[in-house]
Amino acid sequence: MRTFKVIFNTLRSLSFKKLMKLASTVLPHPLFCILAFYATVKSFSIAEKLYPKTASKNGRGNAFRHSFWCCLIMMYCCKVSSPEKALKFCKEITDLHEELFPNKPLETKMDLHNNKIGMDYFMELIPGIHRQFFEKSFFIEELQKKTANAKVLKSLEDDFDGFLVYLEE
């Protein structure tokens, strides 16, 4: 229930211009958007259970949540479309999230980086598993390992290709 409250309050905080930008992305892809919303709720609730102290902050839990979020969006969208279309939509909707709800530059870099890690990880798995058989459990263990090995992002110039990143608390 808390998840829905957070999402509702977040949407309520958007300006008219940002709501229109969101609508222009949502309306062409209604099914993808429903699936992305469901992925948002699932990733948020699972991250809160696994990382209760850092899932909603800039710590390791946030890194897990963003990468897991992208894996779930892609998994759900791949069940109704191609991996390429799912990847394109996932990037579009997650980048839009960062644009609509701006953070400090380092936080934005962290979120975009962790989103990419999730998308890349999903695409690595695609050749070995038929997309209809993916389940969320396929991602949790490996992303938890990646979270345990996450690097601290200290500046905009840092480049930790292949690693999740988080900010020191």
Please outline the helices and strands.
Elements: H1 2-12, H2 16-26, H3 30-50, H4 60-78, H5 83-100, H6 105-125, H7 137-148, E1 151-152, E2 165-166
Parallel strand pairs: 1-2
Helix pairs in contact: 2-5, 3-4, 4-5, 4-6, 4-7, 5-6
Tell me, what's the shape? globular
Strand order of the largest sheet: 1-2
- Identify low-pLDDT runs: none
Count the beta strands: 2
Total count of helical runs of at least 4 residues = 7
**End-to-end CA span:** 27 Å
Oligomeric grouping of the chains: single chain
- Report the structural category: mainly alpha
Mean pLDDT: 91
Q: How much of the residues is beta strand, in percent? A: under 5%
Q: Helical residue percent?
A: 55-70%
Query: Quick one: biggest sheet?
Result: 2 strands, parallel
* Secondary-structure element order, N to C: HHHHHHHEE
The radius of gyration is 15 Å
Structure description:
This protein has 169 residues and is mainly alpha-helical. The chain is 67% helix and 2% strand. It contains seven helices and two strands. The protein has a two-stranded parallel ribbon with strand order 1-2. The relative contact order is 0.14.
Keywords:
169 residues; two-stranded parallel sheet; mainly alpha; 2 strands
